[in-house]
Amino acid sequence: MAEQTEIALATSVNNVPNVRIVNFYFEPAENILYFSSFKGNDKIKEIKSNPYVAFTTIPHSGNEHVKAKGIVQKSSKTIFDIAEQFIAKIPDYKDTIEYAGKSLILFEVRFDTAIVTKDLDTIKTLQL
Description:
The protein is an alpha+beta fold. It has helices spanning about 40-50, 85-90, 95-100, and strands at about 5-15, 15-25, 25, 30-40, 50-55, 65-75, 105-110, 115-120, 120-125.
């Protein structure tokens, strides 16, 4: 979760699934995955309708990834509150925050179990 920068985030409304790629930051001390979204887009409408989501990190090489199911909610923080962490992980995100930060809503995904795959032989379920 520290090295990967994107997740495939899955939502579902009225039994119709949807998935999209989003940048994220995971705060291990809080076990919270943060992502942002532009105000008024379909993702936000779907989350309001059904806060239960699933995600998987996008591997950069090999098969290493983390997947989990959780509940998403609008964060009490803003993208500006954790901008330093996002930029440390994704340096180009600085431009996004500078130019569009006021239009971004920060969300939190909370989950207590994650499946971690290192390779085809090493797959573990972790309780957080």
